Please model this.
Amino acid sequence: MSEQRDHVRDDGFDDWLDAIENGEPYYLTCSEEHGFLPPRHVCPACGSADVEPAPLPATGTLETFTVTSVSTPTFEDDAPYVVAIADFGPVRFTGLVVERDADDVEIGMTVEPDVVSSETTGERVLAFRWCSTSWCC
Amino acid sequence: MSEVRVAGVGLTPFGEYAERTTRELFAEASASAIDDADVARTDVEEVLYGNFLGELSERQGHQGPLMAEAAGVQAPAARYEAACASGSAPVREAVKRIRSGESDVLLVGGAERMTNLTTGDATEALATAADDLWEVRAGVTFPGAYALMARAYFDTYGGSREALAHVAVKNHEHALSNERAHHQQAIAVSDVLEAPQISSPLGLYDSCPISDGAAALVLTSESYAEEHDLDASVAITGTGQGGDRLALHDREFLARSPATRRAGERAYDDAGISADEVDVAEVHDCFTIAEVLAIEALDLEPIGEGISAARDGRTTIDGDRPVNLSGGLKAKGHPVGATGTAQIAEIAALLRGDHPNSEYVEDATTALTHNAGGTVATAIVHVLEVVA
Ligand SMILES: [Zn+2]
Model:
């Protein structure tokens, strides 16, 4: 709908995708050990400004998912696609489920985070890969 | 504290009116409300107006003054935005102003024009109610977000697509007599189950339509209503708002609506009533699962049992406590900025006896409206009571 300048980074968010791509995923945590994602300067749970990165657990558990058939124009060529929320302990986040048929996706499966390219726009998209065995993660 | 009276209500038909601008829609709704209230336009002290998508759908910001102009009112005006709760936010603000004694007569309303957008662009525009960085860029659409909640609900409490289908069937049945409803046609459970999937487990008939429309209210102080001998038997006696993190994955629960619970508790407390006293309710049913989550969070149903309320007849037109007698967002339609105001207009009409479904709630004295923004990162609840 609206045109934006190309390649303007989003502080915090793009840094986090870079970290996933570099195999060094992290989350942010406060002195009370609440977990949250960037770009946040204070803990949304307790308001503490004592914020530090910590290593993200390697795998998460898929908590819920949906197969989206009717997409926005920015995901037109990706549809139908699976979107899920996975729990990594201190944080949850949302991503595309890749390399797995929609029929085979189930709540409780173990996933690891990854970054893929949207088939529609080529933009980076946060994704989940299924870990069938210990060799993948 | 001054009591807040609903002196006038006005609604346009909800439906596909791509050619109608929001200023034109609001002109109609506000004229009806002012006529219904029988107040002088010169007595209106301020216009409080809700709208969500104006910049995206009409390239129009700064809509407050535009809408005062459309209403023929020379008064200060401002726009309120809270995603799909944009129509309740100005009502809540108006209630506070009248209670404080700051104002005696306010024109409150909302409008949305949506069907001039393509379905794809409307889907994209609505998705701006979710977290752009962490949800929309991961492929979350609005139906997708509610689908994530629906599957989490099934996994936590049980339930099925079939039980959800009864919510849609019920609300379509309620809209049959509501001539302003977007959809006035009965549907069967099989229609819902066989409809194309939009975002599994939700299909086309689990979703409210994309609609155009406007709603307006004239709210006055009790003293103004009495001095001017207004026919204003219904009062807004409770208001409450609850908030939550914007992104669904940041919430404590994926299958509950804590923001609705907080809004409901505050509104009940404010009105001095309990959930048991609610005779009839209009709740936010943008998707079938949304109605289930709402009635549970409002304590109208126990947690985990809201899913069966429509199927078992507890919330149907002849049930103990009908929910969404207007047809709800599902069948009446959901022009997002108008919805919250329209819920109050429908409830006021039901309570004063001039709604097509009033006969089903003849003895009702206490009612509730619930309007949600985004995936319920905002919830606004109002209690209405017959006072005169
Ligand atoms: Zn904290």
User: Anything to note?
Assistant: Residues 13-21 of chain A form the longest helix (9 residues). Chain A is about 5% helix and 35% strand. Residues 5 and 106 of chain A are 39 Å apart (CA to CA).
